Amino acid sequence: MIHIAQAIVVEGKYDKIKLSSILDAVILVTNGFRIFRDPEKMALIQYYARTTGVIVLTDSDRAGFQIRNYLKGAVRDGKLYHVYIPDIYGKEHRKEKPSAEGKLGVEGIRKDVLLEAFAKAGVLTDEVPEKVDPITRYDLYELGLSGGADSKARRKALQKRLGLPDLLSAASLLEVLNTMMTRQELQQLLADET
Questions:
Q1: In a domain, 82, yes or no
Q2: 132 lies in a domain?
Q3: Number of domains in the chain
Q4: pLDDT tens across 31-87, in order?
Q5: 65 and 150: one domain?
Q6: Which pLDDT belongs to residue 9?
Q7: Do 16 and 112 belong to one domain?
Q8: Which range (62-71, 139-148, 159-168, 174-183) has the least confidence?
Q9: Rounded to an integer, what distance in angstroms lies between the CA atom of residue 170 and that of residue 154?
Q10: Which of 4, 54, 164, 178 could form a disulfide with 159 if both were Cys (CB 3.0 to 4.6 A apart)?
Q11: How many CA atoms lie within 13 A of 114 on its CB side?
C-alpha cells in the first residue's frame, strides 16, 4: 500500500474504489458537477487544502477539467496539487459503451499508469505499513459519538471544535479523524471536554 499524505479529490465513487485499492489516503468524491452545489463538501476540501494539501485527480475529459478548474478557483488558501492521467481511449468494464469523448476515466486506468502520474506530478509517496491502531467505528460508539441518544449532538460539537463541516456522516467523520489524530489523542480531546 502506498501512503499519500495529502487528501485526494476524485469525481466519482468508482474512482475512489480504484484508488483505495492501491493508496492509503483520504479520498474525497465530488460526485461530478454536484460539487458546484455542495458547500459542505467544498468546506471539507478547503479544510484539507489548508492542513495536508489536496491532490486533484479528475478524468482527462472536458467535465474533468471543468471540475478541476472550479476547484482551482474555490480553494484560495492552502495547497492544491494536480495529477493528470493520460488520454487513453477505451471504456470502463462496468459501462456498456465508452464515454462521450471515448477516454478512460480514473477508474479505468491501470495501477502502474496512475502511480506514474503521481510521480510525474511530484507527489511524494511512501510505502508504509497499515496504521497500527486506527480509530474504529466501535471507538466512536464507545466514545458516545455514534449509536447513542445524543451521539449526533456530540459529533456536531466535536466537528465544530475541529473546524470540520457540519454535515459529515459518522463514517466520513471516522475517515477524517484517522487522518488528524490517533485513538489516544481523540480520547484525550473528548476527556478534556468534560
A1: yes
A2: no
A3: 2
A4: 999 999 999 999 999 999 999 999 999 998 989 999 999 999 999 999 999 888 888
A5: no
A6: 97
A7: yes
A8: 159-168
A9: 11
A10: 164
A11: 26
Please give the full DSSP string across the chain, using - where no structure is assigned.
-EE-SSEEEESSHHHHHHHHTTEES-EEE--GGGGGG-HHHHHHHHHHHHHT-EEE---SSHHHHHHHHHHHHH--SS-EEE------BS--TT-SS--TT-B--GGGS-HHHHHHHHHHTT---EE-PPPSS---HHHHHHTTSSSSTTHHHHHHHHHHHHT--TT--HHHHHHHHHHH--HHHHHHHHHHH-
Range of the domain at 8: 2-127
- CA gap 194, 184 in Å, rounded: 16
Whether the pLDDT of residue 176 is over 50: the answer is yes
Residues 6+ apart with CB under 8 A from 148: 141, 154
Domain boundary among 127, 159, 178: 127
